Amino acid sequence: MFQTIKTACIVCSTVAGTLITSHVQADTNPVVDVFILAGQSNMVGAGDPQNLPDHLAQFIDPNPNVMFRSWLNGAEYGTDWGPLEPRGSSNFGPEMMFGNVLSDVHPDRTIAFMKIAYNGTNLACAWNPEGCGLNLFATLVETIDEWKEELEDLNYTVRFAGFVWVQGEGDCTALWAATPYGDNLMALIDGVRTAAGASKMPAVVAKVNPRTSSYPYVDVVHEGMDNVATNDPKVATVTCKTIELKADDIHFSSTGMITLGAALGDTMLGLDPFGLAEEFEACPSDLNVDGEVNVLDILQMISEFGPCP
After folding, report:
1. At residue 165, what are phi and psi to the nearest 5 degrees?
2. Distance (Å, whole) CA 211 – CA 105
3. All residues at 6 or more sequence positions from 151 whose CB lies less than 8 Å from its CB, including other chains
4. Window from 183-192, 220-229, 283-292 with minimum mean pLDDT
5. Which pTM does this prediction carry?
6. What residue ranges do the domains of the chain occupy?
7. pLDDT by residue (tens digit) across 268-298?
8. How far apart are CA 218 and CA 250, in angstroms?
């Protein structure tokens, strides 16, 4: 009964808001909610459709509800705003399932992803707003501006809704890079928010978890990520400890990319990226009570409850 009342209230308030503002919005362009996705190799994506179990294949089908542009390792893939799909090579990253989660929960919204990622890079230098070496932050800002203009040329009003950061491996190898990770991450998020003109834009950070001896400072990087999330209510982290990796123990497997995308999407929705002031409850975790949180729990959740919330 409470749910019925709540739904009725939402409908009434929506109708009332439409009556009050319709004369203002009648001549405006449609709004597109833009999410910026950035990072290194696990954002570039090493997911291979050929290695994806059949029951997960639907999650990498082209998604016409999300527009997509990508710039990967110095090359721009595609020259137009096509549907979200594996582009360039057949590989995919977390964006596929991330897009499924957002568009399933909000099918009425127009969504676009800007993905900028580069293999083997660190935050201490390459992505640092101060810039050194390969200045990817400058590339990020320039690309955001360019693609924003393209969307405006398509008669959209651009609203930046969220930032997703999948990176950290490049800073886990050396203490000089790992120690200031929290400060560097906050500077990056602030810089992206400034570039987007959205000072309170939500950000979700994946706590990547390479498991080889070549990355001895993972815990230091994770601590920096957690500190940023603790001090900014619009930043949240996603643990990757139970997400499946490839044999190299560094890169997420095809199934792992689906799991990561689902976790990023659920966490982003909890930060209210569309400005709806709704509180989304976290999805149940170990749904099948097997002692692990993995893609099987996500599939069972979708089957029994539908997408979050």
Report:
1. -120, 115
2. 34
3. 32, 34, 81, 112, 158
4. 283-292
5. 0.82
6. 30-305
7. 999 999 999 744 444 555 565 555 666 666 7
8. 12
The tokens for 278 are 């709704």
Read off φ and ψ for residue 105, nearest 5 degrees: -75, -35
Take residue 51 and report the two structure tokens written for it.
């290695």
User: Do 240 and 208 touch, CB atoms closer than 8 A?
Assistant: yes
Order of strands, sheet of 235-239, starting from the edge strand that comes earlier in the sequence: 75-84, 63-72, 110-117, 31-39, 157-167, 203-207, 235-239
**CATH architecture, domain 30-305:** 3-Layer(aba) Sandwich (3.40)
Pairing assessment for the beta strands 157-167 and 31-39 based on DSSP bridges: parallel
Report the distance separating Cα 237 and Cα 268, nearest Å: 10
